[in-house]
Amino acid sequence: MEDKLRELEGRTSALERAVIRLQGQVDDLASTVQSDWLGIDGAAAYLGVSVRTVRRYLATGKLQAHRLSGRGLRFRREDLDAYLRPVTPRGGAPSGEPPQ
Question: Which of 35, 70, 84, 99 could link 93 by a cystine bridge, Cβ 3.0 to 4.6 Å?
Answer without folding.
Answer: 99
